[in-house]
Amino acid sequence: MHTLRFRPETSADDDFLIALYASCRADAALLSQWPSEQRDLFINQQFQLQRQHYLREYPNADYSIILADEQAVGRWYLYRGEAYYELLDIGLIPEYRNKTIGSQLLHELLNEAERVKKPVRVFVEQDNRAQRFYARLGFNATEVHGAHVLLTWQPNYTNP
């Protein structure tokens, strides 16, 4: 089991975040066939567009680096709104995937949301296997937005 913690992301993390973003793309196999300069430019542009979107739509969100035993292993973007929490993004570098880190962080988030009685939302691409992971945690599909599904977890409102 790793000792996990968050720290705020800074501009010094950009190279790490871009590499992480590239490793999480579903079309990585296709992109690997592109010339490296073209691929790197495309990934960088897509990363910057995503970042701009998050900062524009969720300026007060927490943009954090996930540390496992003090090593940067991922990113965690969480918006704590008045009516709900929204997990904007969770991504781990390949060697730390499927090692219970995501589960541990999600359980901690759901425990916090339970205490404050707020639902948790996350958008997932319709063909993303992560939907099964979220379903096991109690998330349900509540809306479809183009290629994405909004999954929502509800706290137990009857618990004091």
UniProtKB/TrEMBL annotation:
Source organism: Methylocucumis oryzae
Gene Ontology MF terms: acyltransferase activity, transferring groups other than amino-acyl groups
Protein name as catalogued: N-acetyltransferase domain-containing protein
Domain N-acetyltransferase: 4-158
PROSITE patterns for this protein: GNAT (PS51186)
SUPFAM superfamilies named in the record: Acyl-CoA N-acyltransferases (Nat)
Family matches, as Gene3D superfamilies: 3.40.630.30
One family name in Pfam for this protein: Acetyltransf_1
PANTHER family on file: HISTONE ACETYLTRANSFERASE, L-AMINO ACID N-ACETYLTRANSFERASE
